[in-house]
Write a sequence for this structure.
């Protein structure tokens, strides 16, 4: 399904986690590029001096070579210079026409993420293609994908995620489960336009009835906060796929972002599909991709 894959390599272990996930999701990838981004320091950006980087090119290539040899994979290695990790990986993926970008889970503390930024979040934000995030230690517990979960709320973004899940199910033979979270005390849009929840059982029955149109996908309904509920759901599936609304920095801070939360708390591998970028899923077996 995914034929052009870029794997972000930042450190040895996270890089191997990402590479292991790339090989699981795209075992027949035609173009696989292991990429390390050398980030320009602030002084280098001001002075326009590309020699000032966090790692020099030799160290970068050594890191990439170790990641490739450790996994026994045949892949191209790329060391690129960019203002930040997100833009560097985006440029590589866009220039190569890649349909999947794979990274490891951010290992920084909450304080460090606020102070210097979250590279995983930066990669997801405005990505030119779908982004897959490997959980910590994934390289040591790679498993067959038998159940694919989808965060579903009948939005255009969640329908895109469902399309990717169905296309992957054709490749892997996995079962697809669409999981809808009813948020208490929150107004909702789409097929569930109703006031704050008071009748939980009734709401769940209504949601199941509305989601019955998903055909081959099983339906799961829960009540609670989206991020926490989906993180719990991720413990019961082998891969979770969600759509990104790409609200922008201000709205993500004000409203929170489920995809941001899952990129740090998902128990299984996570794929975040990009709004407005169909990707390869929509070109595979269109009769299986219909949500009607």
């Amino acid at each position: 399904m995914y034929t052009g894959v870029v794997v972000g390599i930042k450190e040895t272990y996270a890089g191997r986690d990402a590479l292991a996930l790339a090989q699981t999701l795209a075992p027949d990838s035609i173009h696989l590029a292991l990429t390390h981004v050398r980030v320009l320091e602030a002084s280098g950006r001001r002075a326009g001096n590309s020699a000032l980087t966090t790692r020099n090119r030799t160290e970068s290539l050594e890191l990439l070579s170790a990641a490739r040899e450790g996994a026994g994979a045949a892949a191209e290695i790329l060391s690129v210079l960019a203002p930040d990790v997100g833009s560097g990986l985006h440029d590589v993926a866009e220039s190569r026409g890649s349909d999947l970008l794979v990274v490891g889970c951010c290992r920084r503390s909450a304080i460090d993420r606020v102070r210097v930024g979250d590279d995983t979040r930066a990669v997801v934000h405005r990505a030119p293609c779908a982004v897959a995030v490997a959980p910590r230690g994934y390289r040591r517990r790679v498993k067959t994908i038998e159940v694919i979960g989808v965060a579903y709320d009948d939005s255009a973004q969640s329908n895109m995620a469902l399309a990717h899940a169905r296309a992957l199910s054709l490749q892997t033979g996995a079962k697809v489960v669409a999981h809808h979270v009813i948020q208490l005390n929150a107004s909702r849009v789409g097929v569930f336009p109703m006031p704050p929840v008071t009748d939980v059982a009734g709401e769940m029955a209504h949601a199941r009835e509305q989601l019955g149109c998903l055909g081959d996908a099983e339906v799961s309904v829960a009540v609670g906060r989206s991020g926490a509920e989906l993180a719990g759901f991720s413990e019961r599936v082998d891969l979770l796929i969600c759509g990104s609304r790409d609200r922008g920095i201000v709205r993500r801070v004000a409203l929170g972002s489920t995809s941001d939360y899952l990129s740090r708390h998902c128990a299984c591998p996570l794929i975040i599909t990009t709004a407005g970028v169909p990707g390869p899923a929509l070109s595979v077996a269109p009769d299986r991709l219909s949500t009607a």
User: Anything to note?
Assistant: The longest strand covers residues 31-39. The chain has two domains: 4-140, 147-289. The longest helix spans residues 156-172. The mean pLDDT is 78.
